[in-house]
Amino acid sequence: MSASHEAVKGSHRDGATLFALSARNVTKRFPGVVANDGVDFDLAPGEVHTLLGENGAGKSTLASVLCGLYKPDEGAVLRNGTQVRLTSPRHGLQNGIAMVHQHFRLVDRFSVAENVVLGDRSLPFFLKTNTLNDQVAEVAERFGLPLDPNALVGDLSAGQRQRVEIVKALYQGADILLLDEPTALLAPPEVEKLFETVRSMAAAGKSIVFVSHKLGEVVDISDRITVMRDGRVTGSVNRGEADGRKLAELMVGRDIDLSPRRATGACGDTLLTLHNVSLYRDGVALVDNVSFDVRAGEILGVAGVSGNGQRELAELVAGLVAPAGGVISVCGNETNGQGTRSVRRAGLAYVPEDRLGTGLSPSLSIVDNMVLTKERGFVVDRKGARLEADKYIAHLEIKTPSALTATRKLSGGNSQKVLLAREIFAAGDDAKVLVVCSPTRGLDVGAVETVHKLLDEARAQGKAILLISEDLDEVLTLADRLLVLYRGAVVYESAGATADVEAVGLAMAGLA
Amino acid sequence: MIVGNVRIDFEPRLKSPRWLMVAVPVLSLVFALIVAAIFLLATGHSPITAYGRILDKGFLSFYGITDTLGLATPLICTGLAAAFAFRMNLFNIGEEGQMYLGMIGGAWAGIVLVESLPTLFAVPIVLLVGAATGAMWVLVPALLRAKLGTSEIVSTLLLNYVALNLVNFFIFGSRTVLRDPSPFPDGQAVADSARLDRFGTTNTYPTLVIAIALAVLLWVFIRYSNYGYETSVFADSPNTARYAGMSAGWLTLSVLLGSGALAGLGGAMYVVGPAGKVDPGLLQLGLGYAGIVVAALARYNFLAVILTAILFAGLRVGGAALQVSSDPVPISIAVVIQGAVLLFALGGEMFRRNRLRVRRVAAAGGVA
Fold it and tell me: Distance between CA A72 and CA A424 in Å, rounded?
């Protein structure tokens, strides 16, 4: 609490500034949790203010209090310096405050314009489509948000839907926009467009609260960043003072080490080989003549923009699909199209990108998930699985009420630990080759550090690791060598750990 | 929902307290009886007398409970059949038809195959052939589902009508070994060795023991075996099953065939028990469709199927007894009572998993 006060005092703002929106000593409790504990927050007119924090830090709760969705148990919300008691989001809107939720609240079968005016009680009983379309298009254009008012929302991409939500908020007369994890569902180019929109709205005098847990993306966009942890504000920094390492420490509460990790020893035998491997669907090459080796004790990184054959490459290596041509061998055994069970027997473990919907069975317990990729007899050995689960819960500090808890009830980081425990450690020496896809997607900074540490440990144990990730930073942090995949083909290959980042970027964009 | 200045919400419970497991079914039953009482009072009958009679004739009196257990025997089988498929998200609606086929197959085996065999062999053969014909009836829908992804709901449902007409054909429209040669349309009786004696003078047959044992076995098998594990993973997340190298085709096919076999077994139990022939009377009972309700009430738990099947059968037997009392209640009202009990039992589930919260809210628009 003191930290936040100091930060406010120490900033360039003085007491005379009239903040557009403030929270004073806000406390909000849920059964068993204090989601917000005496939180202070100030939003100046025309500023982009980021609320940064790990999942469960209380950022979304604070945003919900600010927009009228939740009533605070203690404390007050101030609009232009006067206290307001918001009773509902509609009431918040009457005060010019709108929230754009992480999961969009739109009607797929309605047009863009119909969605935008939905809930507007001032409309006449019979709607004139043309007038509506003009009004909506006018609002959209004013803030540089290209949208076709006639398009069906069901046909739009995630980024376009988000634009509809923003236009809706603006149409309803919002001066303050709360964007809850706005980049979670967007592809990188759409994120760039969103940032442009945010800037243009701020330039037009709107105030924006940007809720995010992604450290990397918020530094550029924010005029000010307030960091939360365990329901409290741990610090605030202004533009130009932000430094990734310091923010990470404020978020997690300890020093975070995200510095590069490389192989320390010499590499061993070649354990995974792909030779001219291809896969086609409907005449299109999804994986195009790919060849590479991975040796024991090294991580080969595969970078690339999402949808350039990464998923297919992983499934080929894991034996889930058979290649149209070429040879894949695991530990010296040719495994083409033999099915995933025999590829595993040959010595491969696989951590898929979609951890909860593919790598784990979400409604089943941690114990049951430990035996998912094991050889099981007629009767499932749950006693052994229980011992194993308890061991890794203790060893990897997996936060769970018990080993019998369903994996879907775990946080992203903890469910990823369960998956890694099974594929890396419980498999032991049976798994010499490890295929890992986007292992830190959607995880907190603290969990990212843990996952990187575990992968580094597996490398030190002498496993050959194929790391396929859309997060270039991750590949650059961990890989000893790297490839870039573009339209299914290898378009760039680095000799050693030091890749030419510019060349990699060009290769990812298909300009190599 | 907002009524006046009171706001009513359903919130999921984080944990269902133990006492609710008892309180919810009991209260559901009480509310169902109150609702049904309105219908009884409106038609000029005393609810107390009617309920007393249902309880007596369906559950408490010796001949009441034994009649109920007799009816529950094939119902346990169709309930298990539905639970086995539904828990895998395979919606086999064809238990009715598969049960008819079990009756046809069982009767055929009882007439043709087992004449010279002792009961010890004859009855198991009849039951096995009945199970096999039941499974056969779901083979085409199962293959279509496993290979082409065709909805099993429609295909199994439509085959019920085919099965129904097949029974009618054998009894009324043809001269096969299944039909008695006399001019009166009836099924040919199976060999005496293919039938089991009832317990004493009751309507309960030893097949009840087989049905209950089967429920227990199935429960143990699914809970502990690798096959049960794979079906659980597949039901929860087909992608995960594929990732782990399980065969979706085999699991789909085997579960649907198993479900058909269980329903067919119910039909064959009807043969070795009360019927002793292909009996069109089975068509009137609707035990296949009832099996789906029984399974849903049991939340697809095999052990609970035993209890819900007995409850369902008891309501049937007790309800039927209402018509022949000194103050006869029309069958439609008896069906209303059954329906109310089942509906409330299903609805009560919502209260076990959710908490009802009633809060006062500030009047809307109170603060500008």
Answer: 45
- Sort out which chain B residues have CB atoms less than 8 A from A359's CB and list them: 240, 243
> Are A364 and B233 in contact (CB < 8 Å)?
yes
Query: Would you call A364 and B225 a contact, using CB atoms and an 8 Å cutoff?
Result: no
CB contact under 8 A, B225 and A379: yes
Q: Kindly report the pTM of this predicted structure.
A: 0.79
Q: For residue A294, list its beta bridge partners.
A: A272
Whether B242 sits inside 8 A of A379 (CB atoms) is no
CA distance B261 to B80: 10
CA atoms within a 13 Å half-sphere pointing along the CA-CB vector of B75: 29
Alpha helices in chain B (DSSP H): 18-42, 47-55, 62-86, 95-108, 119-137, 139-143, 152-168, 207-224, 226-236, 238-243, 248-270, 281-285, 287-297, 302-322, 331-353
CATH architecture, domain defined by A259-347+432-512: 3-Layer(aba) Sandwich (3.40)
Residue spans per domain, chain A: 2-248, 259-347+432-512, 357-429
Rounded to the nearest angstrom, the minimum Cα separation between A393 and chain B is: 22
Interface of A with B in 52-91 (CB under 8 A): 84-85, 87-88, 91
Instruction: List the one residue out of A4, A41, A36, A39 whose CA is nearest residue A20.
Output: A41
For A20-65, write each residue's pLDDT tens digit.
Answer: 999 999 999 887 778 899 999 999 999 999 999 887 788 989 999 9
Contact B229 A376 (CB under 8 A): yes
List C-alpha distances in Å: A148 to A155, A174, A197, B276. 11, 21, 16, 72
ipTM score over 0.90, yes or no: no
Mean pLDDT by 10 residues, chain B (368 residues): 70 70 80 91 91 92 95 97 96 97 96 89 96 98 95 96 96 89 89 93 95 97 96 95 95 97 97 94 92 90 94 91 84 84 80 73 42
* Biggest alpha carbon–alpha carbon distance for chain B: 91
Among candidates B14, B243, B368 on the partner chain, residue whose Cβ is nearest the Cβ of A352: B243
Contact A358 B362 (CB under 8 A): no
For the domain spanning A2-248, the CATH number is 3.40.50.300
Q: Where are the domains of chain B?
A: 75-299
Distance CA B316, CA A12 (A): 80
Q: Tell me which chain B residues have a C-beta less than 8 angstroms from the C-beta of A363.
A: 236-237
- Residue in chain A closest to B239 (alpha carbons) equals A358
- The C-alpha atoms of residue A315 and residue A461 are separated, in whole angstroms, by 24
How distant, in Å, are the alpha carbons of A138, A195, A206, B243, B286 from that of A142?
6, 16, 13, 48, 66
Cα nearest neighbour of A368 on chain B: B229
Task: Select from B5, B13, B237 the residue whose CB has the most chain A CBs within 10 Å, as the one to mutate to test that interface.
Answer: B237
Inform me whether the C-beta atom of residue B240 falls under 8 Å from chain A C-beta atoms: yes
Q: What is the pLDDT of residue A329?
A: 94
Cα torsion A504, A507, A509, A512: sign: positive
Nearest alpha-carbon partner for A233 in A215, A250, A209, A256: A250
Phi/psi of residue A237, each to 5°? -135, 150
Give phi and psi for B65, each to the nearest 5: -70, -35
Reported as half-sphere exposure (CB side, CA atoms, 13 A), residue B90 has a value of 38
Choosing among A69, A344, A361, A415, which should be mutated to test the B contact, i.e. which has the most B CBs within 10 A? A361
Give residue B276's region: left, alpha or beta (phi > 0; psi -120 to 50): left
Write the Ramachandran bin of A506: left for phi over 0, alpha for psi from -120 to 50, otherwise beta. Answer: alpha
The partner residues of A211 in beta bridges, in order of sequence, read A51, A180
A339 → closest Cβ in B224, B239, B245: B245
Residue written as token pair 């209950």 = B212
Residue B270 gets the label, from left (phi > 0), alpha (psi -120 to 50) or beta, of: alpha
- The pLDDT of A287-313, averaged and rounded, is 92
Q: What is the pLDDT of residues B82-94, one digit of tens each?
A: 999 999 999 999 9
